[in-house]
Amino acid sequence: MSATTVRPYSASSFLKQPPVTEFVYSLYPLEPTEGRHTKLTRHPSAVRFVRNFKANRVELANRLFRIFNERVLNKILPDDMPITWNSRLLKTAGQCKYLRREVIPAAGEKTITRLAQIELSPKVCTTAERVRDTLLHEACHAAVWIADGVNDGHGPRWRRWANRAMQIWPDLPVVSVCHAYAIDARFTYRCTGCGACANRHSKSIDIAKQVCGRCRSRFELLLNTPHGRMMRPSIAGRIDKRLLAHCPTQPPPAEVPNQPGLLDSGEGDVPRRKPAFAEFVRGNYKQVRQRPEVKSHAEAMAQLGNLFKTMKINKPQSDAGQPFSDSSV
């Protein structure tokens, strides 16, 4: 039996651990590609913002705003500047709204206060990285408005703040004018002829009426799964239970010939009869409503309810839907 060699503990092995990256740099995806950031350790407080982004996106935006305001914008912006999420922004990642408040006192000169508000899109800013880059872009707009009082667009004043951010964090993506994000839509309409696709956040295309503008073929509806796959609704619900809400639960109801007193039961071709009370109200409402003592719809329905109960007690159920005569009451 050979002796086992025990290596002595070396403090240098502990000190050689990869350094922890800054919080702003630690918002990359959990599964980096092409060896990105493999030699660095993510900041501990950034893990939950990446892993549970949707539940913590409001806190993430507020934290990033405080960092940008302190390190880039010299605390020009107020600490309580509102940052909201606007679900109506479907293609725009974010926008900055400029506000002006004028106060005219009874005695003295009027004061003008410039305010700003940043809105982020929940449909475009779907990752922590996108929130960071979009918020930095819009914070530069807000700084130009608060500090200089002009809407400079993407002019030299805006570029000055953007370049300052690039000097502080040179490894961040360049603060660009327009984003190039691939917008994740819930639904995709694909042409059955030429294969052209149209992404939508809701079921806004009627596949029974609208056709492709290129080849005049019909569209088919596909669901985009969280894993990036497009599936037909009949298949997606069986694979991912989160998509059951968007899958048809029943086949379309069969056409039933119009017959008085019959409704489609939703179970194929088997019709069912309307409730007896509904038929009773349909046949007798006008007669009861014309009585002089009946002043409102509620009073008419109350009398019809009492009459229907009396008829169910005194007559067989098959005659419950028949009209009544005032002489019997």
From TrEMBL:
Q: Name one GO biological process term.
A: DNA damage response
* Protein name (record): SprT-like domain-containing protein
Organism of this sequence: Paragonimus westermani
Assigned GO CC terms: nucleus
- SprT-like domain ranges (all copies): 58-222
Lineage of origin: Eukaryota, Metazoa, Spiralia, Lophotrochozoa, Platyhelminthes
Q: Pfam families this protein is in?
A: SprT-like
